[in-house]
């Protein structure tokens, strides 16, 4: 079913901080979507950020109408599109109570096999929340490791999690010393050897690494293992993914970055990685959507993309979504929407220069739901669009075209119901602080 869901701000939060919803983002405030995922029961969860950073305002400004702030918001929608619950996290509440949700960068969501919502972020911090968003049941905190600082033990898990059809957890974790840098960088891809719960944190068996680690902080994380021992400079999957890319000069991949891996089948994963970016522009830089099997072998790539004409660097569109039950992968960037089969062969390309698909340039693809629907977010209008993917990818163009027309109608209906201000939606339901 085609659905359009608003990413709404709690009215209580807007009132507390006197947020001017009509103000331009150049004044220092903004709303940004981080991730949207689906649950097996048809529900949808969205993670997004609202912030204000005004120059000249003191850190300890007591007046909330003037103070800077940054909150993560989590919304839960029913299978029918109704907003069921909303939570505010990753910042103290109005009474100074700390948030139990671990904050981080590049935060993502995952609905675990038991229905628990996992919120993960760099550096390898994972928080478990009940499906109804009522409470936090566990937090596994990773701490950033920096040069010349004593390494303290942490309880890290992963920076991102995805679920295979059988319920295994595909994870990405950080590693210190990659590209000879004295910081942690997302570098390891592995599968957990058990369930992640409030009382049990499984080990992650490493399958592949993005790049070689050239220095160590002397404290490898015990839960990330390879052949039964913690991953370190010597005990690690070899060669690295960037070293397996043949026919390309190795220096082109120095300082590259790992995207979020997703399962294409039970034992086949898409691992995106991208060469370094430049302030002057990175279109034409190399990238790869590698196919890695359950033994850690790179068996191929998602094919058919041109480094310039299909570049994901324009707009930083690096996400790949997958429907492992039907063996499909999808990617959306400024130049098109792409779909592949399990064999990595490109099955469909919807060119955004085609007027019918030009609206796709305003969306970001976040994930596929368990039913195979594409979940997209409109970056300016703060709306989630759910597009049912057809059984035959040859019908993808007509399905997307119909969804975009339906989106326009549903958006108009939502405007009449919600009365947004400059595409900022608000709701009066009570938002729980986690």
Properties at a glance:
6-stranded mixed sheet, 434 residues, 3 helices, mainly beta, single chain, 5-stranded mixed sheet
What this model shows, in words?
- This protein has 434 residues and is mainly beta.
- It is built from three helices and 30 strands.
- The strands form seven sheets. Strands 11-12-13-14-15-16 form a six-stranded mixed sheet, with no helix packed on it. A five-stranded mixed sheet has the order 3-4-5-6-30, with no helix packed on it. Strands 17, 18, 19, 20 and 21 form a five-stranded antiparallel sheet that branches.
- The longest helix has 23 residues, at 396-418.
- It is globular and about 60 Å long.
- The two termini are 31 Å apart.
- The relative contact order is 0.14.
Overall pLDDT confidence: 93
The coarse overall form would be: globular
Q: Kindly state the number of beta strands.
A: 30
Alpha-carbon Rg, integer: 21 Å
Q: How is the main sheet built?
A: 6 strands, mixed
Q: Given the helix and strand composition, which structural class is it? A: mainly beta
Offer a quick outline of the entry.
Helix content is 8%, strand content 38%. With 434 residues, it is mostly beta strands.
What is the strand and helix layout of this fold?
Layout: E1 3-6, E2 8-10, H1 11-16, E3 29-38, E4 44-52, E5 69-77, E6 83-89, E7 105-111, E8 117-122, E9 125-129, E10 136-140, E11 160-163, E12 169-176, E13 184-192, E14 204-209, E15 224-226, E16 229-230, H2 241-244, E17 257-258, E18 262-265, E19 268-274, E20 287-293, E21 298-301, E22 320-323, E23 328-333, E24 336-340, E25 346-351, E26 363-368, E27 374-378, E28 383-387, H3 396-418, E29 425-427, E30 432-433
């Amino acid at each position: 079913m085609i659905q359009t869901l608003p990413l709404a701000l709690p009215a209580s939060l807007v009132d507390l901080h006197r947020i001017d919803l009509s103000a331009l983002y150049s004044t220092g405030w903004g709303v940004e979507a981080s991730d949207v995922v689906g649950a097996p029961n048809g529900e949808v969860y969205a993670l997004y950020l609202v912030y204000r950073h005004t120059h000249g305002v003191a850190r300890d400004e007591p007046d909330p109408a003037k103070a800077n702030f940054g909150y993560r918001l989590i919304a839960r929608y029913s299978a029918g599109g109704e907003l069921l619950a909303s939570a505010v996290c990753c910042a103290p509440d109005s009474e100074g109570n700390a948030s139990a949700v671990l904050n981080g960068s590049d935060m993502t969501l995952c609905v675990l096999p038991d229905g628990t919502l996992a919120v993960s972020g760099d550096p390898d911090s994972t928080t478990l929340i009940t499906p109804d968003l009522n409470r936090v049941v566990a937090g596994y905190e990773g701490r950033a490791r920096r040069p010349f600082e004593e390494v303290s033990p942490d309880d890290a898990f992963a920076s991102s999690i995805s679920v295979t059809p059988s319920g295994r957890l595909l994870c990405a974790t950080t590693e210190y010393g990659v590209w000879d840098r004295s910081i942690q960088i997302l570098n390891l891809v592995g599968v957990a050897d058990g369930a992640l719960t409030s009382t049990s944190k499984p080990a992650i068996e490493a399958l592949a690494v993005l790049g070689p680690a050239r220095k160590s902080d002397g404290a490898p994380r015990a839960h990330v293992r390879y052949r039964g021992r913690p991953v370190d400079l010597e005990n690690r999957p070899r060669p690295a993914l960037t070293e397996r890319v043949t026919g390309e000069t190795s220096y082109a991949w120095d300082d590259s970055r790992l995207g979020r891996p997703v399962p294409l089948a039970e034992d086949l994963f898409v691992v995106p990685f991208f060469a370094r970016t430049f302030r002057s522009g990175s279109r034409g830089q190399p990238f790869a959507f590698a196919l890695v099997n359950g033994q850690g072998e790179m068996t191929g790539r998602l094919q058919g993309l041109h480094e310039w004409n299909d570049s994901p660097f324009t707009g930083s569109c690096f996400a790949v979504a997958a429907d492992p039950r039907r063996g499909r992968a999808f990617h959306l960037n400024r130049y098109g929407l792409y779909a592949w089969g399990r064999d990595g062969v490109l099955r469909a390309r919807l060119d955004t220069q085609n007027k019918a698909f030009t609206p796709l340039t305003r969306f970001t693809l976040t994930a596929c739901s368990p039913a195979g629907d594409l979940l997209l977010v409109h970056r300016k209008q703060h709306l989630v669009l759910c597009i049912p993917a057809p059984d035959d990818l040859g019908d993808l163009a007509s399905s997307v075209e119909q969804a975009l027309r339906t989106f326009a109608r549903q958006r108009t209906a939502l405007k009449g119901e919600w009365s947004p201000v400059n595409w900022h939606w608000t709701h009066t339901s009570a938002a729980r602080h986690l």
